[in-house]
Design brief:
SH3 type barrels; 39% strand; ten-stranded antiparallel sheet
């Protein structure tokens, strides 16, 4: 009995020491309701199929394909559903890594509510409360689900927070050459243009050669890659010198 207890304790310690990787989403396509405040989600592509719920205007749903004028979506609880394509639109977005086909993205969910909110075991208020999230805290983003965001909690387990009390922030796109080995290597390089990116703010430039980059315009901390390996985080993080843009922060080269 003592040996079993000791083994269990060692396993728990090892799980606690293993760094949690926030890389969990990638660029893909999502479906959004554009006609009316909601539309029926059906079990098949047609009104002759039974209704399994409603898709709402303010929510997004991972896009899985089109069939006979209906959009195939990932609905609540990993259920497949279909919505009338004439009432919805397909647009670029961040989805679960198993659904998207674009480059991987390091993104977090930030708590924007003024007060603490509940973290639940599923995407609805009916699910049990499994934790508490406080204002301005961030959690690794795992994907959208019918008005809720799936996150990675500090204990390594998955949880859900209400999307209307949070926001998704893109930290960086992970280059294929720097992606963790667990990530599939066949990653398309095209990035949907509809996804906004922050523009860097540069300081004034003089007419001499920059002492920081020698005139080549690349950030010396990350050699222009925009990412560095964090010793504390034990994963690739946004370069603190150039904020992920790869440019020299002293000059405009």
């Amino acid at each position: 009995m003592k040996k079993r207890l000791l083994v269990l304790i060692v396993l728990l310690v090892l799980c606690w020491l293993v760094p949690m990787n926030s890389l969990a989403v990638r660029y893909g396509q999502v479906v959004r309701v554009v006609s009316g405040s909601s539309t029926k989600v059906r079990s098949g592509p047609g009104t002759n199929h039974s209704s399994i719920g409603n898709a709402y205007l303010e929510n997004i749903y991972p896009y899985l394909g089109t069939e006979n004028g209906w959009y195939h979506i990932r609905y609540v609880g990993n259920l497949d559903g279909y919505v009338d394509a004439s009432k919805c639109a397909v647009e670029p977005g961040l989805v679960q890594d198993s659904i998207g086909d674009g480059p991987f993205v390091d993104a977090v969910v930030r708590i924007t509510n003024r007060y603490s909110i509940n973290i639940r075991s599923g995407p609805a208020k009916a699910y049990d409360v499994v934790g508490t999230a406080y204002p301005d805290e961030t959690y690794p983003y795992l994907g959208p689900e019918d008005g809720w965001y799936c996150i990675r909690m500090n204990n390594g387990l998955e949880g859900y927070v209400a999307a209307n009390r949070t926001s998704v922030e893109i930290l960086s796109e992970i280059p294929a050459t720097q992606a963790p080995t667990a990530v599939p290597t066949a990653i398309p390089t095209a990035v949907p243009t509809a996804v906004p990116t922050m523009a860097p703010v540069y300081p004034p430039v003089d007419d001499g050669i920059c002492d920081m980059c020698g005139g080549n315009g690349l950030c010396r901390t990350c050699d222009g890659m925009g990412l560095v390996y964090g010793a504390v985080e034990q994963r690739y993080i946004v370069c603190p010198s150039c904020l992920g843009f790869g440019y020299c922060w002293i000059c405009r080269h």
